[in-house]
Amino acid sequence: MVADDALDRVLKLLASPPVRPEVSHGYLDLLGEEGTHDTLAQRLMRSSGLPRIYEQVWRPVLFGLAKGGPLGPSTDQEYALARAWLDLAATPGATVLDVACGPGNVTRALAEGVTDGGLVIGADASATMLSRAVADTPASAPGTAEVAYVRCDAADLPFADAAFDAVCCYGGLYLFADPWAALASMARVLRPGGRLVVLTTHRPGLPLLGPGLAAVSGATGIRMFGARELTEGLGAAGFSAVRRRSHGLMQLAGATRP
Ligand SMILES: C[S@@+](CC[C@H](N)C(=O)[O-])C[C@H]1O[C@@H](n2cnc3c(N)ncnc32)[C@H](O)[C@@H]1O
By its UniProt entry, which Gene3D superfamilies does this protein fall under (predicted)? Predict the structure, then answer.
């Protein structure tokens, strides 16, 4: 549930706060009837079934396979890496944005690394994912960060410039109609010196895999990013100090807003 004081804090971070905020579903809805573009993957994200199995079954199985099985980082290691690359331990009371938060699994993991007085906002376009995020997120205990959720489009984040200390985007970039606009939007809402961490797909430089991956990508709407494509895209969006590592068909990147 978006607690009243957390909602007030979210409204203060918006570039243009609505006159009558729509919060009847437990998250701040800034999209209304608007949807994201229509691919097979996006339809699944908006379905009522996927949010129920996403965190416990879908993500561990599919991300696990894509990361190379036991050779890749575990889910907990992914989450720990996000907290470390975002430098949350050195940012007391941080204000953090989790873009494409889905059912809030990463949002809650980020909140574990944020100290009292901090705020972690999960942002997503899917109403069904956000309903699940609200249901699965306990009220913040004393001494922990507050968590709130906002329904919005990653390519046009509704927050004021430099509103956040850190931005995370795990498992979302490959679904967006315009991932480069989304990265530019994330750079805009980060304060100078603020950190970004991204987990997305990786197109390995193996020519034999190319046609198969292109076919899957075309059929599902899941974009595969080359290694240089991602680092160059981060640079073009205004980020510096880019670091990157790949694990099978997934890659992680960290960067700083100068
Ligand atoms: C696979 S889930 C990722 C959940 C979580 N971040 C994780 O790593 O497990 C991807 C999410 O991206 C969201 N999404 C897709 N396009 C979006 C957009 N344009 N703006 C905001 N969220 C979007 C979907 O609704 C979905 O909940």
Answer: Vaccinia Virus protein VP39 (3.40.50.150)
